[in-house]
Design goal:
Chain lengths: 156, 156, 156, 156, 156, 156
């Protein structure tokens, strides 16, 4: 199997995408934060009053998608054309599921951007709830869907 | 329960830590990436030859700890004094466990720094293996230990 | 009058604050964005439904305070200990007034941090309303109060 | 009126511009800083000797245009192709007027880039003069002209 | 001779490249760090054990190419499509030579990106060896090759 | 000899400086850019008219010192308290020598900050002259002086 991000001397490289075709790339990633009942209830109670915990997480997620190439060493700088988010309340866990959808017309995919948005968005929820609950767990950060590009579509 | 990061109008704020005592703060966070057998084998084979996949992840994790206050909106800028990492191979999953330990002498804790390092380190492994396996899942990002500060120690 | 940020050859320098006393520094800055009636009404109507326009502005303002030394060339990197915001609706203008309060225990003041937070917060409101109104004007960005440090207190 | 930056659940989103036509986009923004007579005279006297106050402001303004998508949460990352500035001395105010012109061939406009450049440029003047005058006021930050794109031209 | 980065009033500007043709741009830059024998031997001994000194330098170099427009004030933001590195051991100096190759399909060249990558990569080697040797010297940072664009090819 | 930035598994780490004594740290670094006669003459002629080439380099150098911990992976975030620069014209080379002096009261040195400032400052001169001369060479980037801290003073 081919480790595409390494050169012939086993040094990391930024893969050459300059000859790839331009296409519309879409990626959808999601992740879950499992929180204690008190923390969950605090967010739900707060939601009625402008919901700044989840709003802050959404904004952090969108901003993080734009920092992906700064954070992940071999990622290309990209000009994302769209970022959308979805937050689902999971009262039975209890917890929250964050989904981030990124789009680009370009030569390489936007999976890392979507995954980075999910990760930072969930960490932001953690940050805003950690005075209540330090035992929260972030899990199931994963690619849900990807389209565009030579490697074909992916659907979990 | 108290949402400490919100003001009386339910707007986010950066909590005032100016009157907290200076103390030595330590945080240990960990997380796991579950990968396919092919991807796992590629990393292990590569490890014999300088191991740049895991080395890149470690460097990305350390650098990310320094970007925490840029990424997580209500986090304070901090002057971390130490970052250490550990990567454990999990051949039975298969996958990898990344642990990040952060230290600071200061007025607020470094949990978010450790958790951000773990998240970005695992995303870097994902990035370097995604040509082999798009179904990888990041999970169990969690605080393992925290000491220092008024809220007392935490051990999972 | 002394241009403190220039050296003897008229080149910019970062002023040496290393011998200044540590003290608690507080700065309060404010600014106004004047918007059209339609844009104002859209924000007010939206406020009832979680208010993301103003919430986004507040988050952008807080994050910008942390980028001040990156943006203003001669500013020192600082570890702000607190950032609070206030948004006042001005129905008669119509418009919005944003106030940012920053705190630090350190060797130099946090006026630029408060002023940068106000500026970016107001630009964020502009961004979110510009599809409705391109004629909005940002004005009266100014220091309201400053305390701490050798130069004494300032109150407008 | 439509708040384009919000989704159907009143969460902020980065608007999808992927289907917009590529066109040449130009934006011109301006703003004024009103300063005391002593501060104004110091800049004018200094201008004869290389003028680093205003040169620093110009450089900060140009660099800030490139940080716009980091600072304004819902802004798209863009590849600006040109940034020009103009500084006008206003001896009767007294003060200075800074104008920033940005250009792009792309799918969305560069108004926020020009406005951000103006804001940070004026804050830089404030920073370099604040040892002389803390009462300075930044005002009239506004879009002067915009061309390109579906929404048509704008001229104040 | 023409200082292209200055406007008619001798203020810096970001040159307008909006009317330049799109072409494939390649730049190769290199530089050398001369180190003491002990430092050289430490790296060579370490190379057998995963080589993290040089691996870290390579990663820092690649990441720095992506920060060029943030660091060099008049540089355009660019979407580099490829970054490759080469490290040559120079036992007779003793020292190390770092070469960085950058590529882009675009309207302006990537020389500054390659040169910035070389500079930061060499500084990273310095950082990791400075406990052994503080007298190291970085030298011969230079453009080796450039192709694409109106100004023609350059070969040292 | 000890590679302090590596852990017992040969992975990079950020060295723990939390137990080091606070002291006043000073570092002075310098470097030279050798340019062609035409480029040198252009800068000198321009110097009479506000000198924006060298002013831009100085500002870039100062700003870069503040980005050091972002650029050099194992560097600690620091709160520099002073940055000064000096530019010397070298008509016989011809070229320019840039010196950067950094200061800090803290637990670790500021050599990397001074060296990073020199490197980015010289690259900025390169950028502004590259339309005239692509053969310029940056050399002799080196530490001139260091004081403070356990490892004692260094003077070249």
């Amino acid at each position: 199997m081919n480790l595409t991000h390494l050169d012939e001397q086993n040094k990391p490289k930024m893969v050459d995408v300059g000859n790839k075709a331009q296409s519309t790339r879409i990626a959808v990633a999601s992740g879950i934060i499992e929180v204690g009942q008190s923390a969950f209830d605090a967010v739900i109670a707060n939601r009625a009053k402008k919901g700044p915990v989840l709003q802050t997480a959404v904004i952090a997620a969108i901003q993080a998608t734009k920092q992906t190439s700064t954070l992940i060493p071999m990622c290309h700088p990209l000009m994302i054309t769209s970022v959308k988010t979805d937050i689902e309340e999971l009262p039975e866990l209890p917890g929250f599921k964050l989904t981030v959808t990124t789009k680009l017309n370009g030569q390489t995919g936007v999976e890392m951007e979507a995954l980075t948005g999910v990760s930072i968005g969930l960490l932001t929820i953690y940050d805003m709830l950690k005075a209540i609950d330090k035992g929260m767990v972030i899990k199931h950060i994963q690619l849900e869907h990807k389209s565009g590009g030579d490697s074909g579509d992916f659907n979990r």
